[in-house]
Description:
It is a single chain. The protein is of the alpha+beta class. Helix content is about 20%, strand content about 30%. It contains five helices and twelve strands. It has helices at about 20-30, 45-55, 65-70, 120-135, 190-200; strands at about 5-10, 40-45, 55-60, 70-80, 85-90, 95, 110-115, 140-150, 150-165, 170, 185-190, 210-215. β5 (about 85-90) and β6 form a beta hairpin. It is globular and about 50 Å long.
Amino acid sequence: xxxxxxxxxxxxxxxxxxxxxxxxxxxAALSRSGETLREGDILGVSxxxxxxxxxxxxxxTDKTGTVASQTVAVVAERTxxxxxxxxxxxxxxxxxxxxxxxxxxTGGRDVLLLLPHDPDEVCRALRSALSSRTGVxxxxxxxxxxxxxxxxxxxxDFALGSAGVRVVDDLRGLPDADGLVLHVTTRALADEIxxxxxxxxxxxxxxxxxxxxxxxxLTAGGPDAARPExxxxxxxxxxxxxxxxxxxx
Length: 249
């Protein structure tokens, strides 16, 4: 991989409304930043703007019912004072608190934002739209959301959806720097990219997208070229009892 990585926050994207063309908004933001898409670029996009553009929102009167409607299976529940938290396997794919249902950064509206049920397909469609309008074929798109982590304080962004980007780097069976064979190391590349992009996007700066440059070797070669061995963030979700220690809470 490149020893140099550049991440540019794409500021100036207006409040997104249902039906907005995200590809056009992103290209306009790139232009305002003095950038154009190049071969090998990756765009990190916050899930909230996809939810808003897709009309994935409901009234905020019944969050418990809304979370239930976005849940495949309940993993754990906890009541604390007047608060109630439910960790679930969401219809969007991952295990997460409240199925990703969120009342923050809604544009001042009293609504709850929902996650798309097929985030990888959202990324494929956005990647196709950007590629067709720019002619850039080696392009990656990562849709990010925020989650907490077992054993760690705080939240980080992770790849909810992905297209055109190799999402994992399986190093098992390869030697480390000292020549010892690695047995368990599999890097979550898409999650690392999503977290890095959030350093310039943030949670309060109204910068819902970022350009990541310097990882061209992780991107697909174009719509008709071979896909990376794994380019969907769904491949990062542990689903088996043997692989997921937290599946049963």
